[in-house]
Amino acid sequence: MRTGPTAPLAPDHRRPLSFLRTARLDAVAYAALAGACLVAGFVNLALAPTGWRLLLRVVVGPLVVLVALVIADRRKWGRMETGFSFTDDVATMRAVADRLTARGLPVTLGEERGGPSLRYRNRDAKQVHAALADLGIRTD
To answer: Which end of the chain is more exposed for a tag (fewer CB within 10 A), N or C?
Structure first.
């Protein structure tokens, strides 16, 4: 059984809800984010001649900043590599990796903590897990 930071997340032990997956904001980062939102809000205040309501103009700028931050964070998370291992047998892992590669999935076989593991990007995780389930391998 795995322990520590690599332990799988059980349904009752999920991480706290967050709109960011990779970024961890500290006090300075929150201040910078708030400053960017304030600047965007003031720019929208300058758009008063457009005829939009004040509340709408003030909300649009910070909302655009937050949406851009979430999109950048999700793109970074999607490019990050993750791994999955279900046995210590290198031959079995290589056979599964070859089957997944034959299905067109970008999977490589790597070495993790002394044992073999399938390596793939987070954005491909759903397809890889579905293919593993088709092969009879549980990923939950």
So the answer is: N
